[in-house]
Amino acid sequence: MVLFDNMGSVAIYTTIVVTALLTYGVAGNPFAVALDFLKNLVLSPRYFIHFIALLAILYLNKSEMRIERNMDYTVNFTHWFKSIEGSFVANLQHTFENSALTTGLVFLYVVGLQALIIASIGVYSYRSKSKEMYYATCYAIMLNYLIAIPFFLFFPINEVWSFDPNVRFLMLEAFPKFETEYRPLSGLNNCFPSLHTSILTTLAILSVKSGNKKWAVLVCTCAVLTIFSIFYLGIHWLIDMCGGLMLATFASVVGIKLAKVNVLRLPDTLPSRLFAREEVK
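Structure for PAP2 superfamily protein, as requested:
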């Protein structure tokens, strides 16, 4: 079943999923969350700076492939992973392959990552005074990308399906134009560590720390299914996943610590507070 014709359809599905996630995460109006987000961007310089920094890191990741093309570096380490793992991915894919499962996991892989990042930012900053989990999310995601990008540049590992003839790239069954539409955002040899694993696991850890139990259950479930999907779809090696889990643990712990320092020691200079102080005087 074809789900995506182009990146436009991916954007539409992502918008729908984000709206549903926000409704679930805050048990309220998702448009109120969006309005609150815009309000924070305008009124809080600290909030704004963190969000811009996050966008800058995401842009850097997008630019990584352009940097890679301009590098005179042809070393590839995929054969090491294959020699260690053997046919793990091929065996898993052949065991579970099913058309309905393929459709669901393609949807989760393509839409789930960005939808959960956006929704997490909304959930953690909506009606929150300290916004500590918002800052923790920003720091942790930035760390994920900053640490992963050097590996992508200097430790290239090809996706499993492109190296192992016994593995099929099941992504194409639901997203036939993946190679022309989505591939510019995700290099064929940018496998280690698995960012899908690291970022979803990071979001899962943060969701547990947030204290929002129903949100944690949802995010953790998505993380587990996404980790399964990276093997099932024929994309990542088992070692990629292990690297992603290690990166997620480090980024989450450091992200939370940085957020605590940020919230406790760096005052948020909201104009509304300044006005309030002037009135008191």
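The mean pLDDT is 92.
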